[in-house]
Design a protein that fits this description.
The complex is a heterodimer of chains A (295) and B (183).
Chain A (H helix, E strand, L loop, with lengths): L3 E6 L3 H10 L4 E3 L5 H7 L5 E5 L9 E3 L5 E4 L4 H6 L1 H6 L1 H7 L5 H6 L2 H6 L8 H6 L3 E6 L2 E6 H4 E3 L2 E2 L6 E7 L1 H4 L3 E7 L10 E9 L6 E9 L6 E2 L1 H7 L6 H10 L14 H22 L7
Helix pairs in contact in A: 11-12, 12-13
Chain B lengths: L4 E8 L2 E8 L4 H8 L18 E4 L2 E4 L12 E3 L13 H8 L9 H13 L6 H7 L11 H14 L3 H5 L17
Parallel strand pairs in B: 1-5
Antiparallel strand pairs in B: 1-2, 3-4, 3-5
The chains are: A alpha+beta (295), B alpha+beta (183).
Chain lengths: 295, 183
Amino acid sequence: MYDIKALYEAESVEHAVQLRQEHPEAQILAGGSDVLVQIREGRRAGCEFISIYMLDELRGVSIDEEENIRIGSLTSFSHITKDPIIQKYINVLGEAVDMVGGPQIRAIGTIGGNTCNGVTSADSASTLMAWDAIIELTGANGVRRVPIKDFYIKAKVVDIKPDEIQTAILIPKASYENCFGHYIKYSMRNALDIATTGCSVNAVLSADKKSFERVRIGYGVAAPIPVRAYTAEEFIKGKEITEENIKKFAETVLEDINPRDSWRAGKALRRHISVVMAERALKECVELAGGEING
Amino acid sequence: MDNQYKVVHCTINGKEVSQIVDVRASLTDMLRNDYRLTSVKKGCEVGECGACTVIINGESFNSCIYLAVWAEGKEIWTLEGLTGPGGELSDIQQAFIDEGAIQCGFCSPGFILTSWEIVNSGREYTDDELRKALSGHLCRCTGYENIFRAVKKTMLRRLGKNEEAELVNSQGITEYPDPMPFK
């Protein structure tokens, strides 16, 4: 038995919004791979919960009428990895969420929960940041869209209003078109571990594949919330694909990231691996995009 | 607040059932206490050890971090569902015995269910893919080599590759003779 004070089961998105208004103290329960464990630990024991897990309308990946990739918030990690739309347009997201926990955790864990709990180590977060994902929230006044960089406010705090639930994550066409990405998770073990630091890079090459048209890089556990390294992105924009430029790009990420010492790893190690991961991930992107590194 | 109860309808091991459950119960609680399916083990109860693994709609889940009320309308399999009408063991269960993949037996029901999902997929996993697919289970007795070998051999046999299954060595690596007698 879980130490739960009350459980309110949402039967539709509208019902979930109504429950949010009726029970302001209640917390949202999606897949529960974090929340149920925290109830066991005592951190969330004795609380009220609104379960949205049974809302199948929030599952699945599709392309909407604006040509965004639309990922329902309750889509599990395992289903994201297997989804043909994800594999075709943003395979790196499927690869990243395939590194969460173990297989059973990936069957229950949802991408919405992974973003809403607001932790920097979430394996999906750096990739969603790096692809300028848009968070769709539904509340009493209808649907609201927030760029993911504004969705994260501070550690464990995200921009969800008291009457809202997250209903989808969108990847705009301008973001995924001709774009190739790679994610590196640095952790002590290959399974059932949390990232020491994670780095997700994606690149669009010029038509002749000689230079970088656009590069974006997102980090998990390089700051209290997932972050982008905009200075490095600005540096590499339009530059030729050379070993030297990629190295310089990787070193520049240090201007934007601010990792901390924790029991998992020290700040110095995190700074070091952040640079190495940036270089390796960008090289992988060049390869995926069919480019070559000159010089 | 008073205790909350709910009727949950689902299919367990091929049989349609329903039961009144406490909304605070985990699926492990429901399967063990209401249905007496005690192959579903309580290990860590926080989704780390995999001892409570069951198959829900074809996929392995940790039943300890799954609310019983979420089982509504789902198709659930536990180890009890794998044996034949006379208690005959399935191929994957027999393989665990043959390969010495069982000692205390606490992790076995969970391991066997994930293995069952693997061998039912009809796909040939690489060694690395198999290790990754089994990574959500902890075993403190036999280690993982024997378990790995049991799964790999059963997978190969299901794919009609009996000869190749015989070439899997004690470390779980397929040792092809030179020259290869078959391809």
